[in-house]
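Example record

The entry below shows one chain as it appears in the dataset: sequence first, then structure tokens.
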Amino acid sequence: MEIQRRKQIIYIGNEINDVLENIINESNDLRITSRYINEYNLNTIITDQIHSFNGINILIIDNKSVTKSTSESEIIKALTKIRDLYDLRIIYIAEGYKRGSQLLSNIFDLGIYNIITAENSKILEEELRKALSEEGMSFRNSKKFKLENVLLNINSTNKVVEKKFIKAKQYVSVGVAGTQTHIGTTTQAIMMTKFLVDSCNTSACYVEYNNHKFVDNFIEWADEYFENIGKVSYQNIDMFQYKDNIKDIVKNDYSINIYDYSNFQEMSDEQIASFLEKDIKFVVSGTKKWEEDQLFEVFSKVGESADINYIFNFVPEEEKELFRKSMQEFNSYFSEYSVNPFVVKNKTYYEEMFKNYICDSEIEKKKQPSKINFKRLFKKGS
């Protein structure tokens, strides 16, 4: 009688999944009824075993067992057949797949929200536990896989240039550090992450690489919170609390990792060295006299490196031209004013900053009243 009360599971995979087995063995509510361990055409095995799914509560499919012999359209056909015939939960494991995958978007469109993509073993375990929990993953958890015709509106009042961004080309590490406290470093780091995730369908995450505990503020309202790895999902982006092994946790599961170093006044020599090793580096500053003094101190720590981008906050319009001339040898940008870091400003120059790391499709133009374009203000000096 105890076994009958357990949720019955069928697992289709190319090998035994030790993480999954351990989770199920620890539970009094779960039981694997059948394991199909091999490489399959998913549509064929579903058709051949269709009667085996009667009374099953959960079907787990590891993408590795089917992709060699099953086209994406056949995978969707097989999942549709199961959804039409049985009321069961489908957990689809697609280890290493990123936002921007057409397959995962199609699976999401079927109403399958338990989609597991983590490569890191700790995150994989957390995602599997969530998928196997009583409530499972929700629409909110997995809507990141939904592919839309993502439009980036570069101009708000005039001619609109629209782009559809697909994914990051490679793993990229990004460092963001301010010249001082309260200069807007975290706001910039969060907005960059939000831009990459929402506007570019890129798997990016924010890492709080300091001790300010900014991420802790969102635990109460989080869409997901994985305490073991310090992961908080909020407003469609994944944020991580600082941990000693944070690089190992996030590197394999996100195309772009954005590290918030807070400010140079608090950074150790080791942290400065870490910042300088990042693929893309941003220093956030202001232009007031005392803020410029802090900027000169940063120059003394990092050198006048041509590969560091400078973002200036809170700059009055009338001062921009003069400051532009003084910084003409650097990659410099003036930020739009932002109160809420989860509402993205600066889309045009974020596009410029990350253009070498994201792919974009055709550009379409819609006719609207004529425009003012917020373009990159500085170029490298000769």
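Notes for this example: The chain has two domains: 2-145, 160-366. The chain is about 30% helix and 25% strand.
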